[in-house]
Amino acid sequence: MANLIIDIGNTAVKASWSDGMTLGRTFRYQGEKVAAYILSLTDRQRPDVMVVASVYTISDADAALFRERCNELLLLDGNHKELLEEKELPSYLTYDRAASLLAARYLFRGKGCTVFDFGTTLTVDFTDESGAYTGGNVSLGCRTRLKSLNRYSRALPLLNQPEEVPVVGMDFESSIGAGVVSGIMFEIEGYIALHPEHVIVFTGGDAIYFANRMKNSIFVICNLVLMGLALIADEHVKKSN
Asked: Which long-range contacts (CB under 8 A, 24 or more apart) does 30-37 make?
C-alpha cells in the first residue's frame, strides 16, 4: 500500500493506507496530538503520496513535518481549494464532503446520487446523472442533537443514542429519543422523496444505525470519504507518471 490518506474531521481523525482505490486497515484517533499521531503512521513506511484532508486549516509548521515524511504531500484544507475547482465542486464544501461526492461519482457513474453523511453534522449532498453537483444541506447530527437538548434546556437529561426507538415517546426519555431519531428519519425520507430515482448512499459513524431503520434500498459505504481521498491520491500518481 503506497499512499497514506488522512481525514481530519470535527471529532476524530481517520486514516488508511491505499493502493489505487483499495484501502488497507482503517485507523481512528480522537485526541489533541493530531500531528504527532499522523507522523506515527509513517514510522515504519514512507508513503509515496500523503493526502491530508482537514476541516480546519493545517499550519505551515505541521505541513513541513508531514512533507518530510512522504515523497509528495497533498494538503486539502481551507487554504487549498484548487482541487474543488478542478472537480467542478463549489469552494464552500469541506473536503470530507467533496471526497464523498467524488467516490460516489466513481462508484455510481451515470446515476444521480443522494449522499447522507451521519456524523457530528448530518450533511446531505446531491449529484445528477452526469455527476454534476446540484447542492446540499447541513444540519446537526444525531448525537449533537441529543447533547444540544441537554445543554440548552435545564430540564432535559443527556441521553445516549437509543437502540429501541418508538415513533412516539411514552415517557420522558423515550420522547427525547423518539423526537431526535424520528425527526432525522423524517428528514431522510423527505430528501429521498426529492429525487426518488437517485442512488441513496449512507456514510459516516451513524450510517449503519440509520440504515437499519430504512425500508428503502440504500448503499452503506462507511469509508466513502477515505475512498474519495484514495481516488484523489491515485489520480495524482497517474498524472505525475
From this structure: 34/8, 35/62, 35/65, 35/66, 37/13
Burial of 179 (C-beta count, 10 Å sphere; 0-12/13-18/19+) = middle
Tell me whether residue 96 is one of the annotated catalytic residues: yes
Determine the Cα–Cα distance for residues 123 and 204; give it in Å rounded to an integer: 10
Q: How many CB atoms lie within 10 A of CB 125?
A: 24
pLDDT in tens, 82-137: 999 999 999 999 999 999 999 999 999 999 999 999 999 999 999 999 999 999 99
Indicate which residue of 62, 77, 96, 234 is catalytic: 96
What percent of the chain is modeled with pLDDT above 90? 80
- Write down all domains in the chain, each with its CATH number in brackets: 3-95 (3.30.420.40), 97-224 (3.30.420.40)
pTM for this prediction:
0.92
Q: Is the pLDDT of residue 3 over 80?
A: yes
Q: Which amino acid is it at 41?
A: L
Q: Widest CA span of the chain, in angstroms?
A: 63
Cell matching residue 202:
449512507
Q: Greater confidence, 1 or 188?
A: 188
Q: What is the DSSP code (8-state) at residue 227?
A: H
- All three cell numbers of 161: 443514542
